[in-house]
Amino acid sequence: MAETDVRQQILIKETIDGIPVMEAAARRKPKTATLRQRPDPYIWGVYIMMLIISLIELFSASSSEVSGSNVYTPLIRHAIFLAIGLGCVLGLQKVHYGWLSRFAWFCTILSLVLLIISSVFGIEINGAQRAISIAGFTIQPAEIVKLTVVVLLATILGKSQKPGGVSNSGITKAAIVVVAFSACLWKNGLTNTILLMGVSLSMFLIGGIQWKKIGIVLIIYAIGVGALWMLKYDKSGADEFDNVSRTEQVAGGGANGNSDSGSKDRSDTHKGRMQRFFAGVHPNDPITDENRQVFFANISQANGGMFGQGPGNSRESARLPLAFSDYIYSIIVEDTGFVGGVFLLILYLFLLARAGRIAYKCSRAIPAFLIMGCAVLIVFQALVHMAIVTGLFPVSGQPLPFISKGGTSVVVMSCAIGIMLSVSRFAVTSGKKKDISDEGKALPSDLQAANYAGYQNNENE
User: d(Cα 461, Cα 453) in Å, to the nearest integer?
Assistant: First the structure.
Protein backbone atom coordinates (compact mmCIF):
# COMPACT_ATOMS: atom_id res chain seq x y z
CA MET A 1 0.00 0.00 0.00
CA ALA A 2 2.81 2.36 0.92
CA GLU A 3 4.61 1.53 -2.30
CA THR A 4 1.46 2.46 -4.30
CA ASP A 5 1.24 5.87 -2.55
CA VAL A 6 4.89 6.62 -3.33
CA ARG A 7 4.34 5.82 -7.03
CA GLN A 8 1.29 8.14 -7.12
CA GLN A 9 3.29 10.97 -5.53
CA ILE A 10 6.06 10.52 -8.11
CA LEU A 11 3.48 10.52 -10.90
CA ILE A 12 1.91 13.71 -9.57
CA LYS A 13 5.31 15.41 -9.35
CA GLU A 14 6.16 14.35 -12.88
CA THR A 15 2.95 15.77 -14.40
CA ILE A 16 1.39 19.19 -14.79
CA ASP A 17 -2.37 19.13 -15.12
CA GLY A 18 -2.13 15.51 -16.18
CA ILE A 19 0.46 16.24 -18.89
CA PRO A 20 3.94 14.75 -18.45
CA VAL A 21 6.53 17.38 -17.46
CA MET A 22 8.74 16.80 -20.52
CA GLU A 23 5.75 17.15 -22.85
CA ALA A 24 4.57 20.29 -21.07
CA ALA A 25 8.02 21.84 -21.43
CA ALA A 26 8.00 21.04 -25.13
CA ARG A 27 4.61 22.74 -25.52
CA ARG A 28 5.86 25.84 -23.74
CA LYS A 29 8.89 26.07 -26.07
CA PRO A 30 8.49 29.12 -28.38
CA LYS A 31 7.63 28.25 -31.93
CA THR A 32 10.10 30.86 -33.14
CA ALA A 33 13.08 29.02 -31.67
CA THR A 34 15.73 28.57 -34.30
CA LEU A 35 19.36 27.66 -34.65
CA ARG A 36 21.83 30.30 -33.48
CA GLN A 37 25.33 30.17 -34.82
CA ARG A 38 28.33 32.37 -34.28
CA PRO A 39 28.33 35.50 -36.45
CA ASP A 40 30.63 35.02 -39.41
CA PRO A 41 34.19 35.88 -38.26
CA TYR A 42 35.33 36.78 -41.79
CA ILE A 43 32.68 39.48 -42.18
CA TRP A 44 33.59 40.77 -38.73
CA GLY A 45 37.26 40.78 -39.69
CA VAL A 46 36.68 42.79 -42.87
CA TYR A 47 34.50 45.27 -40.99
CA ILE A 48 37.03 45.84 -38.19
CA MET A 49 39.83 46.26 -40.74
CA MET A 50 37.74 48.85 -42.59
CA LEU A 51 37.25 50.80 -39.35
CA ILE A 52 41.00 50.86 -38.71
CA ILE A 53 41.72 52.01 -42.26
CA SER A 54 39.02 54.64 -41.93
CA LEU A 55 40.50 56.19 -38.79
CA ILE A 56 44.02 56.31 -40.23
CA GLU A 57 43.18 57.57 -43.70
CA LEU A 58 40.51 60.07 -42.72
CA PHE A 59 42.97 61.71 -40.34
CA SER A 60 45.50 61.81 -43.17
CA ALA A 61 42.96 63.30 -45.59
CA SER A 62 41.48 65.91 -43.26
CA SER A 63 44.28 68.48 -43.27
CA SER A 64 42.00 71.03 -44.95
CA GLU A 65 39.50 70.64 -42.09
CA VAL A 66 41.94 70.80 -39.20
CA SER A 67 41.52 73.83 -36.99
CA GLY A 68 44.39 75.51 -35.23
CA SER A 69 42.95 74.74 -31.81
CA ASN A 70 42.55 70.97 -32.13
CA VAL A 71 44.02 68.86 -34.93
CA TYR A 72 42.04 65.83 -33.75
CA THR A 73 38.58 67.39 -34.15
CA PRO A 74 37.78 65.74 -37.54
CA LEU A 75 39.03 62.38 -36.27
CA ILE A 76 36.97 62.56 -33.07
CA ARG A 77 33.85 63.54 -34.98
CA HIS A 78 34.30 60.66 -37.39
CA ALA A 79 35.09 58.21 -34.58
CA ILE A 80 31.76 59.05 -32.94
CA PHE A 81 29.88 57.98 -36.08
CA LEU A 82 32.02 54.84 -36.37
CA ALA A 83 31.08 54.01 -32.76
CA ILE A 84 27.39 54.55 -33.54
CA GLY A 85 27.76 52.29 -36.57
CA LEU A 86 29.48 49.63 -34.46
CA GLY A 87 26.56 49.78 -32.03
CA CYS A 88 24.16 49.21 -34.93
CA VAL A 89 26.19 46.19 -36.04
CA LEU A 90 26.18 44.69 -32.55
CA GLY A 91 22.44 45.24 -32.23
CA LEU A 92 21.35 44.04 -35.66
CA GLN A 93 23.42 40.85 -35.55
CA LYS A 94 21.22 39.75 -32.62
CA VAL A 95 17.96 40.41 -34.49
CA HIS A 96 16.58 37.53 -36.53
CA TYR A 97 16.60 38.44 -40.21
CA GLY A 98 12.91 37.48 -40.41
CA TRP A 99 12.00 40.55 -38.34
CA LEU A 100 13.84 42.78 -40.77
CA SER A 101 11.69 41.48 -43.60
CA ARG A 102 8.51 42.01 -41.60
CA PHE A 103 9.24 45.73 -41.31
CA ALA A 104 10.69 46.16 -44.81
CA TRP A 105 7.71 48.07 -46.24
CA PHE A 106 7.41 50.32 -43.19
CA CYS A 107 11.11 51.24 -43.20
CA THR A 108 11.12 51.84 -46.95
CA ILE A 109 8.09 54.14 -46.85
CA LEU A 110 9.57 56.00 -43.88
CA SER A 111 12.83 56.53 -45.76
CA LEU A 112 10.83 57.75 -48.77
CA VAL A 113 9.04 60.30 -46.58
CA LEU A 114 12.41 61.54 -45.30
CA LEU A 115 13.68 61.77 -48.88
CA ILE A 116 10.67 63.87 -49.93
CA ILE A 117 11.10 66.12 -46.89
CA SER A 118 14.77 66.64 -47.73
CA SER A 119 13.87 67.55 -51.32
CA VAL A 120 11.25 70.09 -50.26
CA PHE A 121 12.39 71.46 -46.91
CA GLY A 122 15.96 70.18 -46.66
CA ILE A 123 19.21 72.05 -46.56
CA GLU A 124 21.60 72.39 -49.49
CA ILE A 125 24.84 70.43 -49.57
CA ASN A 126 27.19 71.04 -52.50
CA GLY A 127 24.50 72.68 -54.61
CA ALA A 128 21.77 70.09 -54.08
CA GLN A 129 18.88 70.09 -51.63
CA ARG A 130 19.45 66.63 -50.23
CA ALA A 131 19.78 66.68 -46.42
CA ILE A 132 17.79 67.20 -43.24
CA SER A 133 19.25 68.96 -40.22
CA ILE A 134 18.11 67.55 -36.87
CA ALA A 135 19.58 68.70 -33.54
CA GLY A 136 22.79 69.77 -35.20
CA PHE A 137 23.20 66.51 -37.14
CA THR A 138 22.81 66.27 -40.91
CA ILE A 139 20.94 63.26 -42.28
CA GLN A 140 21.02 62.33 -45.96
CA PRO A 141 17.90 60.21 -46.63
CA ALA A 142 19.21 59.05 -50.03
CA GLU A 143 21.75 56.86 -48.23
CA ILE A 144 18.99 55.34 -46.07
CA VAL A 145 16.74 54.75 -49.08
CA LYS A 146 19.36 52.61 -50.82
CA LEU A 147 19.54 50.13 -47.94
CA THR A 148 15.80 50.00 -47.21
CA VAL A 149 15.03 49.37 -50.88
CA VAL A 150 17.57 46.53 -50.92
CA VAL A 151 15.86 44.93 -47.89
CA LEU A 152 12.46 45.40 -49.55
CA LEU A 153 13.69 43.86 -52.81
CA ALA A 154 15.09 40.90 -50.88
CA THR A 155 11.70 40.45 -49.22
CA ILE A 156 9.76 40.64 -52.50
CA LEU A 157 12.12 38.28 -54.32
CA GLY A 158 12.27 35.90 -51.36
CA LYS A 159 8.49 35.63 -51.31
CA SER A 160 8.38 35.09 -55.09
CA GLN A 161 11.12 32.48 -55.37
CA LYS A 162 10.19 29.24 -57.11
CA PRO A 163 12.11 26.34 -58.71
CA GLY A 164 12.35 28.11 -62.07
CA GLY A 165 13.53 31.38 -60.55
CA VAL A 166 11.47 34.37 -59.41
CA SER A 167 7.82 34.52 -60.43
CA ASN A 168 6.66 37.08 -62.98
CA SER A 169 4.62 38.93 -60.36
CA GLY A 170 7.68 39.16 -58.12
CA ILE A 171 9.80 40.56 -60.95
CA THR A 172 7.09 43.10 -61.80
CA LYS A 173 6.73 44.30 -58.20
CA ALA A 174 10.48 44.57 -57.74
CA ALA A 175 10.94 46.48 -61.02
CA ILE A 176 8.16 48.91 -60.13
CA VAL A 177 9.72 49.55 -56.71
CA VAL A 178 13.13 50.23 -58.28
CA VAL A 179 11.76 52.60 -60.93
CA ALA A 180 9.62 54.47 -58.39
CA PHE A 181 12.47 54.99 -55.93
CA SER A 182 14.91 55.77 -58.71
CA ALA A 183 12.61 58.59 -59.76
CA CYS A 184 12.70 59.91 -56.20
CA LEU A 185 16.49 59.58 -56.01
CA TRP A 186 17.03 61.30 -59.37
CA LYS A 187 17.02 64.79 -57.87
CA ASN A 188 19.50 63.72 -55.17
CA GLY A 189 22.02 62.36 -57.62
CA LEU A 190 22.14 60.47 -60.89
CA THR A 191 24.80 58.12 -59.48
CA ASN A 192 22.49 56.94 -56.71
CA THR A 193 19.84 56.10 -59.30
CA ILE A 194 22.28 54.09 -61.43
CA LEU A 195 23.66 52.38 -58.33
CA LEU A 196 20.21 51.29 -57.16
CA MET A 197 19.34 49.91 -60.59
CA GLY A 198 22.66 48.05 -60.76
CA VAL A 199 22.16 46.47 -57.34
CA SER A 200 18.62 45.40 -58.25
CA LEU A 201 19.80 43.75 -61.48
CA SER A 202 22.44 41.85 -59.52
CA MET A 203 19.78 40.61 -57.10
CA PHE A 204 17.62 39.51 -60.03
CA LEU A 205 20.51 37.48 -61.41
CA ILE A 206 21.16 35.97 -57.97
CA GLY A 207 17.53 34.88 -57.89
CA GLY A 208 18.02 32.85 -61.06
CA ILE A 209 15.88 35.03 -63.32
CA GLN A 210 16.06 34.02 -66.96
CA TRP A 211 17.99 36.30 -69.29
CA LYS A 212 14.84 36.96 -71.29
CA LYS A 213 13.18 38.44 -68.21
CA ILE A 214 16.33 40.40 -67.40
CA GLY A 215 15.99 41.94 -70.85
CA ILE A 216 12.41 42.94 -70.08
CA VAL A 217 13.53 44.56 -66.81
CA LEU A 218 16.26 46.48 -68.67
CA ILE A 219 13.66 47.78 -71.11
CA ILE A 220 11.48 48.93 -68.21
CA TYR A 221 14.48 50.67 -66.62
CA ALA A 222 15.42 52.31 -69.93
CA ILE A 223 11.89 53.63 -70.43
CA GLY A 224 11.83 54.95 -66.87
CA VAL A 225 15.22 56.67 -67.19
CA GLY A 226 14.26 58.09 -70.58
CA ALA A 227 11.04 59.53 -69.19
CA LEU A 228 12.87 61.08 -66.23
CA TRP A 229 15.53 62.53 -68.52
CA MET A 230 12.94 64.13 -70.79
CA LEU A 231 11.00 65.57 -67.88
CA LYS A 232 14.09 67.09 -66.30
CA TYR A 233 16.30 68.11 -69.21
CA ASP A 234 14.27 68.46 -72.38
CA LYS A 235 12.81 71.75 -71.21
CA SER A 236 16.29 73.31 -71.21
CA GLY A 237 16.67 73.13 -74.96
CA ALA A 238 18.66 70.94 -77.29
CA ASP A 239 21.68 73.22 -77.42
CA GLU A 240 22.17 73.44 -73.67
CA PHE A 241 24.52 70.46 -73.61
CA ASP A 242 27.00 72.34 -75.75
CA ASN A 243 26.54 75.64 -73.93
CA VAL A 244 26.86 74.58 -70.33
CA SER A 245 27.68 77.31 -67.86
CA ARG A 246 31.37 77.21 -67.05
CA THR A 247 30.97 78.85 -63.66
CA GLU A 248 30.57 75.61 -61.70
CA GLN A 249 32.56 75.90 -58.47
CA VAL A 250 33.96 72.46 -57.84
CA ALA A 251 36.30 73.75 -55.19
CA GLY A 252 33.37 74.73 -53.01
CA GLY A 253 31.06 71.92 -54.08
CA GLY A 254 33.59 69.15 -54.42
CA ALA A 255 32.76 66.11 -56.36
CA ASN A 256 29.10 66.80 -56.11
CA GLY A 257 29.44 69.97 -58.10
CA ASN A 258 28.11 73.34 -57.02
CA SER A 259 26.83 76.12 -59.20
CA ASP A 260 27.54 79.77 -58.56
CA SER A 261 23.90 80.57 -58.83
CA GLY A 262 23.03 78.11 -56.08
CA SER A 263 20.18 76.80 -58.19
CA LYS A 264 18.59 73.55 -57.18
CA ASP A 265 18.22 72.56 -60.83
CA ARG A 266 21.32 70.44 -61.41
CA SER A 267 20.86 69.79 -65.12
CA ASP A 268 23.81 72.06 -65.95
CA THR A 269 25.93 70.21 -63.41
CA HIS A 270 25.14 66.75 -64.80
CA LYS A 271 25.66 67.75 -68.41
CA GLY A 272 28.83 69.65 -67.64
CA ARG A 273 30.30 66.61 -65.91
CA MET A 274 29.58 64.41 -68.89
CA GLN A 275 31.03 66.94 -71.30
CA ARG A 276 34.26 67.27 -69.29
CA PHE A 277 34.49 63.50 -68.80
CA PHE A 278 34.50 62.83 -72.54
CA ALA A 279 36.87 65.75 -73.15
CA GLY A 280 39.31 64.43 -70.54
CA VAL A 281 41.99 66.20 -68.51
CA HIS A 282 45.50 66.54 -69.91
CA PRO A 283 48.75 67.32 -68.06
CA ASN A 284 49.23 70.65 -69.83
CA ASP A 285 45.71 71.90 -69.13
CA PRO A 286 45.47 74.89 -66.75
CA ILE A 287 43.99 74.08 -63.34
CA THR A 288 40.52 75.59 -63.05
CA ASP A 289 37.64 75.31 -60.61
CA GLU A 290 36.05 72.83 -62.99
CA ASN A 291 38.91 70.34 -63.27
CA ARG A 292 40.50 70.88 -59.84
CA GLN A 293 39.16 67.66 -58.34
CA VAL A 294 40.29 65.45 -61.21
CA PHE A 295 43.65 67.18 -61.56
CA PHE A 296 44.75 66.91 -57.93
CA ALA A 297 43.29 63.39 -57.60
CA ASN A 298 45.51 62.28 -60.49
CA ILE A 299 48.55 63.97 -58.96
CA SER A 300 47.79 62.34 -55.62
CA GLN A 301 47.66 58.86 -57.11
CA ALA A 302 50.83 59.48 -59.13
CA ASN A 303 52.64 60.49 -55.93
CA GLY A 304 51.73 57.15 -54.37
CA GLY A 305 53.84 55.05 -56.69
CA MET A 306 54.07 51.36 -55.83
CA PHE A 307 54.24 51.50 -52.01
CA GLY A 308 53.12 55.03 -51.15
CA GLN A 309 54.43 57.92 -49.08
CA GLY A 310 53.26 56.44 -45.78
CA PRO A 311 50.09 57.24 -43.76
CA GLY A 312 49.89 60.93 -42.92
CA ASN A 313 52.42 61.99 -45.56
CA SER A 314 49.93 62.95 -48.27
CA ARG A 315 50.88 66.20 -50.02
CA GLU A 316 47.63 66.68 -51.93
CA SER A 317 45.13 66.34 -49.09
CA ALA A 318 45.45 70.08 -48.39
CA ARG A 319 44.75 71.01 -52.04
CA LEU A 320 42.25 68.34 -53.09
CA PRO A 321 38.69 69.50 -52.29
CA LEU A 322 36.69 66.95 -50.30
CA ALA A 323 39.71 64.67 -50.01
CA PHE A 324 38.19 63.27 -46.81
CA SER A 325 34.99 62.07 -48.50
CA ASP A 326 34.36 61.90 -52.25
CA TYR A 327 38.06 61.52 -53.14
CA ILE A 328 39.51 59.71 -50.15
CA TYR A 329 40.61 56.73 -52.27
CA SER A 330 43.16 58.97 -54.01
CA ILE A 331 44.65 59.84 -50.60
CA ILE A 332 44.74 56.14 -49.69
CA VAL A 333 46.68 55.42 -52.88
CA GLU A 334 49.05 58.32 -52.17
CA ASP A 335 49.66 57.04 -48.62
CA THR A 336 49.88 53.31 -49.35
CA GLY A 337 50.63 53.20 -53.07
CA PHE A 338 49.33 50.88 -55.74
CA VAL A 339 49.71 47.96 -53.33
CA GLY A 340 47.50 49.57 -50.71
CA GLY A 341 44.86 50.56 -53.26
CA VAL A 342 44.68 47.01 -54.62
CA PHE A 343 44.58 45.57 -51.11
CA LEU A 344 41.55 47.71 -50.25
CA LEU A 345 39.84 46.64 -53.48
CA ILE A 346 40.49 42.98 -52.64
CA LEU A 347 39.08 43.56 -49.15
CA TYR A 348 35.76 44.71 -50.59
CA LEU A 349 35.68 41.88 -53.12
CA PHE A 350 36.42 39.36 -50.37
CA LEU A 351 33.38 40.66 -48.46
CA LEU A 352 31.26 40.00 -51.56
CA ALA A 353 32.76 36.54 -52.03
CA ARG A 354 32.14 35.63 -48.40
CA ALA A 355 28.53 36.78 -48.64
CA GLY A 356 28.14 34.72 -51.80
CA ARG A 357 29.46 31.64 -50.02
CA ILE A 358 26.98 32.03 -47.16
CA ALA A 359 24.12 32.77 -49.56
CA TYR A 360 24.92 29.65 -51.58
CA LYS A 361 24.66 27.52 -48.45
CA CYS A 362 21.40 29.08 -47.17
CA SER A 363 18.45 26.70 -47.15
CA ARG A 364 15.89 29.45 -47.73
CA ALA A 365 15.75 32.23 -50.30
CA ILE A 366 15.11 35.29 -48.11
CA PRO A 367 18.40 35.17 -46.14
CA ALA A 368 20.34 34.57 -49.36
CA PHE A 369 18.79 37.65 -50.97
CA LEU A 370 19.36 39.75 -47.85
CA ILE A 371 23.05 38.99 -47.41
CA MET A 372 23.84 39.28 -51.12
CA GLY A 373 21.81 42.48 -51.52
CA CYS A 374 23.67 44.18 -48.67
CA ALA A 375 27.06 42.94 -49.89
CA VAL A 376 26.40 44.05 -53.48
CA LEU A 377 25.28 47.49 -52.25
CA ILE A 378 28.49 47.98 -50.24
CA VAL A 379 30.82 46.69 -52.93
CA PHE A 380 29.12 48.43 -55.86
CA GLN A 381 29.29 51.75 -54.04
CA ALA A 382 32.98 51.16 -53.31
CA LEU A 383 33.66 50.29 -56.96
CA VAL A 384 31.80 53.38 -58.17
CA HIS A 385 33.82 55.57 -55.79
CA MET A 386 37.09 54.03 -57.00
CA ALA A 387 36.04 54.33 -60.64
CA ILE A 388 35.26 58.03 -60.20
CA VAL A 389 38.56 58.72 -58.43
CA THR A 390 40.61 56.87 -61.04
CA GLY A 391 38.82 58.60 -63.93
CA LEU A 392 36.81 55.65 -65.24
CA PHE A 393 33.47 57.31 -64.37
CA PRO A 394 32.37 60.96 -64.58
CA VAL A 395 32.79 63.06 -61.44
CA SER A 396 30.01 62.49 -58.91
CA GLY A 397 29.76 62.45 -55.15
CA GLN A 398 29.82 58.87 -53.84
CA PRO A 399 31.44 58.06 -50.48
CA LEU A 400 33.73 55.08 -49.96
CA PRO A 401 31.83 52.76 -47.57
CA PHE A 402 33.05 52.87 -43.94
CA ILE A 403 36.04 55.04 -44.83
CA SER A 404 34.81 58.37 -46.22
CA LYS A 405 33.64 61.04 -43.82
CA GLY A 406 29.86 61.15 -43.61
CA GLY A 407 27.76 60.14 -40.64
CA THR A 408 24.72 58.87 -42.54
CA SER A 409 26.77 56.74 -44.93
CA VAL A 410 28.84 55.21 -42.12
CA VAL A 411 25.79 54.30 -40.04
CA VAL A 412 23.77 52.95 -43.00
CA MET A 413 26.62 50.78 -44.30
CA SER A 414 27.23 49.52 -40.77
CA CYS A 415 23.56 48.51 -40.62
CA ALA A 416 24.12 46.57 -43.85
CA ILE A 417 26.98 44.70 -42.15
CA GLY A 418 24.71 44.03 -39.17
CA ILE A 419 22.10 42.49 -41.48
CA MET A 420 24.75 40.30 -43.09
CA LEU A 421 25.90 39.09 -39.67
CA SER A 422 22.28 38.40 -38.68
CA VAL A 423 21.91 36.15 -41.73
CA SER A 424 25.20 34.40 -40.98
CA ARG A 425 23.99 33.77 -37.42
CA PHE A 426 20.38 32.67 -37.91
CA ALA A 427 20.16 31.28 -41.46
CA VAL A 428 20.48 27.51 -41.66
CA THR A 429 23.43 26.46 -43.77
CA SER A 430 23.90 22.93 -42.42
CA GLY A 431 21.33 21.26 -44.65
CA LYS A 432 19.92 19.29 -41.69
CA LYS A 433 16.17 18.78 -41.97
CA LYS A 434 15.54 19.49 -38.29
CA ASP A 435 17.41 22.80 -38.44
CA ILE A 436 15.56 23.76 -41.62
CA SER A 437 12.25 22.92 -39.96
CA ASP A 438 13.11 25.04 -36.91
CA GLU A 439 14.10 27.92 -39.16
CA GLY A 440 10.72 27.74 -40.88
CA LYS A 441 8.96 28.14 -37.52
CA ALA A 442 10.70 31.50 -37.06
CA LEU A 443 9.48 32.80 -40.42
CA PRO A 444 6.02 33.73 -41.75
CA SER A 445 4.60 31.23 -44.21
CA ASP A 446 5.19 33.56 -47.17
CA LEU A 447 8.93 33.81 -46.42
CA GLN A 448 9.67 30.10 -46.35
CA ALA A 449 10.55 29.65 -50.01
CA ALA A 450 13.57 27.41 -50.52
CA ASN A 451 16.84 28.70 -51.92
CA TYR A 452 16.72 26.74 -55.16
CA ALA A 453 20.06 28.19 -56.24
CA GLY A 454 21.75 26.76 -53.14
CA TYR A 455 23.91 23.66 -53.36
CA GLN A 456 21.84 21.78 -50.76
CA ASN A 457 18.67 22.09 -52.81
CA ASN A 458 20.56 21.07 -55.95
CA GLU A 459 21.85 18.00 -54.14
CA ASN A 460 18.35 17.12 -52.97
CA GLU A 461 17.09 17.30 -56.54
Answer: 11
